Amino acid sequence: TWLNKGKIKIKINKSSHCTDVFCCVIFIIVILGYIALGTVAWLHGDPRKVIYPTDSYGQFCGQKGTPNAKKSILFYFNILKCANPAVLINLQCPTTQMCVSKCPDRFATYTDMQLQYQITAAPWEYYRLFCKPGFNNPTKVLLRDEDCPSMIVPSRPFLQRCFPDFITLNGTLTVAKRTHFKDALDKARSLVDAKEVGMKIVEDYAASWNWILIGLVIALVVSLIFILLLRFTAGLLLWFTIIAVILVIAYGIWHCYLEFSLLRQQPGADVTIVDIGFQTDVTVYLHLSQTWLIFLIALCTIEASILIILIFLRKRVWIAIALLREGSKAVSYIMSTLFYPIITFLLLAICISYFSVTSVFLASSGDAIYKVMAAEPNCMYANTTCDPETFNKTNVSKTCPGAQCTFAFYGGETPYHRYLFILQLSNLLIFLWLVNFIIALGQCTLAGAFASYYWARRKPQDIPTCPLFSSFSRAIRYHTGSLAFGALILALVQMARVILEYLDSKLKGASNVAARFLLCCLKCCFWCLERFIKFMNRNAYIMIAIYGKCFCTSARDAFCLLMRNVVRVAVLDRVTDFLLFLGKVLIAGSVGVIAFFFFTHKIPIVQEDVPTLHYYWVPLLTVIFGSYLIAHGFFSVYAMCVDTLFLCFCEDLERNDGSPEKPFLMSAELHSILRKTEHH
């Protein structure tokens, strides 16, 4: 596409041929293979194995049409065995598990039940609900066969599993105020604490989800208003943002100092966070002076950093504001670009959903595998594969008294099952490739639309019709291979980082210091490499959108162009990112303040509508994080616009000199301000 400007022809995108065709063909083949992989996983997998809990006989709990249809909860005979490190190897608790309709609501032991059975049968009728089906011998003394649990405790269902209803009294883990678990069961304590927090968080989300959505809608509206105001009051609004962030942080410093000074004079407030350890009630930490001291130091550091940046880069801030003002004009002329992140979000949602479903079906592929669960630690048949139908006829039960053949996991010995791990890795790699391709497509599309704005002499008359749709069509039709090539490079680096993280988790606690140090260095190097490739890919996609060349040529041209203008890059790139970051912080922070006053009952008008919560910070953090993501989605369009205009500006300066024969296509304001970077 060429725009005629009198005697001058300005090339926007020479899209007469496809680029990186070979990579495009490979990309299409991989997508077809990915569809085939999902189909095979769907044929072999069974998501019920993930959705429904499975008892010791491999039967699903709560599945319709089975004997356990009305028994949707999994009950563990001895849940404390789940804290055994062997669970990480066998992926199954070494205790009998069965499906029940409800969890126990009282404390009872098998011995006490036998004593009461001599008087009345009522205790046994309740206790037998948690014994193996068909067992009806309450006088049996030996429980080596685990026909019944040795005791039942009050429990509550969580994730369709019965967990003891533990409470903490004076630092001691207690059940039903009768059974005390001391230091020997600290692992169980942490497990139950995590379960308790998880249940309360889920309950808070269920009670406040509608208010969270309202907060996110408010963030969406505020973001749109902020962007529209940038078109007319960019300088004023950005300086207001800077001053507002500084004042908000200053207020936070003052508030933290008051809390710290007040708590420092109170007895017991000098206890450190390490001393009290993990607490399910987060408000406990707010009564410690050390907590507010940490907040105070963090806010002072952030405030000082912002002030130093503004003092030493005050002139650069003016230049960055001018570039953002020019970007706001481009966005106002092509308003459809503001809604393109919705398309990217939908494509990413489809990709993530397909990846998740494929992962679940792959993980649930295979038949039920049963292993010997030995009651004695020295049993030679422990963890060996067994058949529950013929188990009683073997010598295992004689050699290892009390041993049982219980369900362990799903697997198989076919070639498909042997290569399941490789298929999961392939699923992850293709997923990363597709995600990076979707992001690359969005960047190239936006760059093409904003480039058409820059190279138009008369704005908006010379801007092509439907610039966003035209740019999207060019990117899909001609540059799919180039975008896939760049996305593949980034996906391979990200895959390497995933593998390194996996190795790091395996080496935790290892005594080999050299291996840990080498792994840490590799993680750092690959992190830096990923950041560099993202930066180069972004600029390469802009050059692809402008000139329509292949990926390698565009990446080389972008790198050389940036190196020839390294001073301008250093001045504008980080400063504009800094200003946009402050805008995102202001939007997220303002919505977060409103949410804080709402969930803490400090807004009198709506006090009666506030839901009762265990932790008010659960919806609060969700609203703040969601607001930041929404603002980031809109501001990412601005960031892409600024980067595109900057590369076009550098290209304009090199190809034109401002003469009538070679006039600049940038605006007079942008030219006069950006040229100042040469003198600073």
Automatic annotation (TrEMBL):
Primary location: membrane
A GO cellular-component term linked to this record: plasma membrane
InterPro entries per UniProt: Choline_transptr-like
Transmembrane domains' residue ranges: 21-43, 209-229, 236-254, 292-313, 333-355, 430-455, 476-493, 513-533, 578-601, 613-631
Keywords: Antiport, Cell membrane, Glycoprotein, Membrane, Transmembrane, Transmembrane helix, Transport
Reaction(s) the record says it catalyses: choline(out) + n H(+)(in) = choline(in) + n H(+)(out)
Membrane-protein topology: Multi-pass membrane protein
Record-linked Pfam families: Choline_transpo
Keyword tRNA-binding: no
Subcellular location as annotated: Cell membrane
GO terms, molecular function: antiporter activity
Protein function: Choline/H+ antiporter. Choline transporter.
Stated family: Belongs to the CTL (choline transporter-like) family.
PANTHER family assigned to the protein according to its UniProt record, in alphabetical order: CHOLINE TRANSPORTER-LIKE (SLC FAMILY 44), CHOLINE TRANSPORTER-LIKE PROTEIN 5
Designated name of the protein: Choline transporter-like protein
